[in-house]
Write a structure and sequence with these properties.
Layout lengths: L46 H18 L1 E3 L2 H10 L2 E3 L2 E3 L2 H8 L5 E4 L8 E4 L4 E4 L5 E2 L8 E2 L2 H13 L5 E2 L11 H15 L3 E4 L4 H15 L3 H6 L3 E5 L6 E2 L1 H12 L3 E4 L4 E2 L7 H22 L5 E4 L3 E3 L6 E2 L3 H17 L3 E4 L9 H17 L3 E6 L1 E2 L4 E2 L1 H18 L8 H4 L1 H7 L9 H4 L17 H6 L5 H15 L7 H16 L8
Parallel strand pairs: 1-12, 6-19, 7-21, 9-10, 10-11, 11-13, 13-15, 14-16, 15-18, 18-19
Antiparallel strand pairs: 1-3, 2-3, 4-5, 7-8, 16-17, 20-21
Helix pairs in contact: 1-9, 3-9, 4-5, 5-6, 5-18, 6-8, 6-18, 9-10, 10-11, 11-12, 12-17
Length: 520
Amino acid sequence: MSDDAKPRRRRSGGRAANTAKRQTSDINQMPWRVPVNTDRPTEPLDGDGVQAIHDGAMRILEEIGIEFLNEEAIALFKQAGCKVDGTNVKMGRDWVMEMIANAPEQFDITPRNPDRKITVGGGHILFGNVSSPPNYFDLEIGKKVSGNRKQCADLLRLTQHFNCIHFAGGYPVEPVDVHASVRHLDVVFDKLTITDKASHAYSLGKERVEDVLNMVQISGGWSDEEFEASPKMYTNINSTSPLKHDVPMIDGCLRCVRRGQAVVVTPFTLAGAMAPVTMSGAVALSIAEALSAIALFQYVRPGTPCVIGTFTSNVDMKSGAPAFGTPEYMRATQMTGQMARFYGLPLRSSGSCAANVPDGQAMWETTNALWASVQSGTNMVYHAAGWLEGGLIASPEKFVMDCEVLQMIQRYMEPAVTATAPEDIAFDAIKEVGSDGHFFGIQHTQDRYENAFYSPFASDWRNFEAWEVAGAEWTAQRAHRIFKEIINTFEEPPMDAGIRSELEDFVARRKTEGGAPTDF
């Protein structure tokens, strides 16, 4: 932290001051919780299959190597004794496995509101908002448009409102109306004031990363020592498949690692384009790319919290367009889950689709992707709500519709659903009703009916005639109405006035200094 940002203002009011104000919208949603996935994971690979992919990934690292364009990374690999030829780095499997063994299997990220702390790893499954689309679509506009700051802020309001969204990823839509040199300052300020959930920094140049590190530190009122003692935020990077890591992303990760923050490494490998057409080959390539960076970060700071990510899908071989929510995507996610457990690393996957509007295709593809996350034992699900057109469009209607699915997944995981205590077996109730009665009116039902089953907020369970009389709203139309209700009744979570002022001052100062350099 720079000296001119000190002394630190401490947050006042204790934990009570961090409790988000109750939203006035009457949308029925579950309370905040960090769900635990108790199902046994789906494992399509047998032991030999796991070893085959592991051996394939290790051979890639040993015999082919990974291109690291970042000069600091090259110097560090040389220091570690890896074989470096220009930008090509080859590393032995023993060294890689020694480094990977330092990474924790589970860790916490604590944002400015400690009640929103999330646990990454173990059986926990966390859902995040859509991140990084350059375009926006909603039913009111009725067409695809470039994103702006207001739309970005509205999607952040949805991120805060829905308890099934656990972390705030990158920009939920790119606000292209704000110049790139200061965009990160405005959006991160919005994110830290509109939400109180764990947030992300883009690794896109040292100025952006350092600014976000400082802003997150200010938001929590932490000293340097407190901030660096445990993760308060994270960054996510993609390799440049095949077999390459670029300059700014590795630089950003190294900056986060040295300040104790978490790192997610997610190769974006499309089978048939940037990876072999076979899914096991695509997964092996993805594993090699991810482990090469994670090994570097563990060398720099052993024990740094790292997550291995998967974005392995396939292309449409007729058009070359990315496809998501496919059977191959699901299997690749499950296979990567097996490999993550083999390496003892938490796993990140995504909710995704190739659909262009919030329709049936959007929901079946996204639901496939989300359930693949459940089946794989994923710990962080990126883009869980709001994603369209392969990540090129953010949609508030899709965000609302996805949150219905996320709540259903959370309900599916609740222990009460599969409880087998005597009152759950309900022998006395069955005996009371016998063979010629019904269960509606008995006391066992009356005591439990309010919370017995999942209650939706977007689905409409009325029959056709009742639905028609009520206005015949299709799902996306209901979702749009819900979106508007949330935005119109939204209240920002509390923030200490001194901390908000310090954030405002930081943003203003960095803007006068020019923000981040650009070539335009």
